[in-house]
Amino acid sequence: MCQLNKSKSKEARCDKDRLKYSLAVSLTAAVITGLILFFLIGHGDSSSAHLAITAFIVMVGTAITFFILWTGRVNLLRMVTFIGMDGLIFTIALSLEHEVNRGSILLTSQALNNNSAPICPITIPFVAVPYFIEGKMIFPSPVTSLFAVLFMWLGLVLILGRGWCGWICFFGWMDQFFASLLKKPIIPLENSPKWAKLFPYAFMLFLILVSAVLLIPIFCAYMCPLRIIYDPPGVTTTFQWITALIFVTGGLIFLVIGPLLTKKRLFCSFICPLMPANSIIGVINPFKVKIDTNLCKKCGLCIKNCELFAINEESLAMGKTTIECAKCGKCMDKCPAGAIDYKLMFTDQRIRLYFIPLAIIFNLLIVSGFVWMIVQYLTTGEIGSIP
Ligand code: SF4
Ligand code: SF4
C-alpha cells in the first residue's frame, strides 16, 4: 500500500503509481486500439502483403498502448514509434520513392520543372498563404498535393494539437534522436530567452510575407536543413555550393550536433516554420498537459528535462505548460511526484487513457502508408507516388 511505504524511493514509486492504469483497463484500451487499427488499415485488400502489414501495425499499436498505460511511462515507447516507425520507415520509403520515380534522391531541375517534387507539411504556412491570396502555387508540385497535405496536417493538429511534433511529424524524429543519445547534456540549457522563444513566430511571418511577395518558397529553396537527408540539392554552380553549405551547416547545428550536446530539440524549437502554426492552432486542442501544484515538489526536473522549452517557472507555478508543449510525456516520466498528466482542457479530468491510443493510432496510420510503399518496392520493384 502506498501510504505504508516509509523509504523515499518507495514514496516516489507510489507517487508515480497514480499515472498507471490497472491491467484490465490497460488491456481493454490496447485491444480497442488494435481493433480500430485493424478496421482502418485492414479493409479493402485481402492480399497476403496487405494482411501482413495490417498484422504488424496492429501488433505494434496494441503492445505500445498497453505498455504505456500499464507502466505509466510514456516517453520511451513514444520514441519507439516516433524515431523507429516514423523516422526510419519514412526515410527508407521516401528515399526509395525518389530512387524509383526520379532516378535519384537528388532533387533535380527536371523534377522542379515537371512539378514533381514531393511537398511536405512544413511548407504549408508559406505555400498555402500565397495560393489562397493570389491563386499561385509556388511549390513545384501539384495543387492536389498541397490540399492532401494541408488537410492531413490540419486534421491531425486539430485532434492532437502540438502533439503533432511529439507523435506524428516524420521530420521531427531527427533532432529527437540526437537529443536522446547522451544521458546528460554537455551544454545544459534549461530556459530559452524570450527573444529566442519569439524567433520562430517572427521567422514564420517573415517566410509567409517574403514567399507571398516574391512567389518563391525561400525556406525550401535556400534554408531547410532537412534537405541534407531527404532532398540534397544538385550542386554545380557557385550559388548552389553556397546554398548547399547553408543546408549542411544548419543541419549539423540544429539537427545533429546541437541536439546531441544540449539534449534539446533545437530544429523543432527554433527553426521549423510549422511549429508556430501547430502551437497557435493547438491552443484550441482539448488535450492539455497540466501540473498538479498541490503535488509538485518544486524540484525543477520537468523544466530541466523538457526538450522543447515548454515548461518554465512561471508556467509551472500556474500548473500548466506553454503552448509549445508537444505532449511527449518526458516531464511526466521524470517528475518524482507524479504531478504531471494529460488533462482535459479547462478541467482536472485525466485523459491519458484517450490521448495515448489516439496518438498511437494516428502515428501508425501514417506509418502503414510508408510500410506499404516499402513492401510494394520489395515485391514489384515499383512504388506508388506519395502526395
Ligand atoms: S512540457 Fe512535458 S510533455 Fe510538453 S514537450 Fe515538455 S516534456 Fe514534453
Ligand atoms: S518535476 Fe516539475 S512538476 Fe514534478 S515535482 Fe518537480 S517541479 Fe514539480
Describe the structure.
This protein is mainly α. The protein folds into three domains: 1-105 and 353-386, no CATH class; 112-285, no CATH class; 286-349, Alpha-Beta Plaits. It has 18 helices and two strands. A two-stranded antiparallel ribbon has the order 1-2. Helix 2 (23-42) packs parallel to helix 18, helix 3 (48-71) packs antiparallel against helix 18 (352-380) and helix 9 packs across helix 12. The longest helix is centred in the C-terminal third of the chain and has 29 residues, at 352-380. The N and C termini lie far apart (54 Å). Residues 289, 306, 308, 310-311, 321, 325-331 line the site of one iron/sulfur cluster (SF4). Residues 287-316, 324-345 form the 4Fe-4S ferredoxin-type domain. One of its GO terms (cellular component) is plasma membrane. Keywords: 4Fe-4S, Electron transport, Iron, Iron-sulfur, Membrane, Metal-binding, Transmembrane, Transmembrane helix, Transport.
What are the secondary-structure elements, in order, as H or E? HHHHHHHHHHHHHHEHHHEH
Distance between the termini: 54 Å
Helix content: 55-70%
User: Looking at the structure, what is the overall shape?
Assistant: globular
Could you name the ranges where pLDDT drops below 50 across 5 or more consecutive residues?
Answer: none
The helix tally amounts to 18
Count of all domains: 3
Strand content: under 5%
Distinct small molecules bound, one entry per kind:
iron/sulfur cluster
The mean pLDDT is 90
For the biggest sheet, the summary is:
2 strands, antiparallel
Question: Strand order, biggest sheet?
Answer: 1-2
Instruction: Return Rg in Å.
Output: 22 Å
Given helix and strand content, the structural type is mainly alpha
Number of strands: 2
InterPro entries: 4Fe4S_Fe-S-bd (IPR017896), 4Fe4S_Fe_S_CS (IPR017900), Electron_Trans/Redox (IPR051684)
Protein name: 4Fe-4S ferredoxin-type domain-containing protein
Transmembrane segments: 21-42, 48-69, 116-133, 145-164, 198-219, 239-261, 353-375
Organism: Methanosarcina spelaei
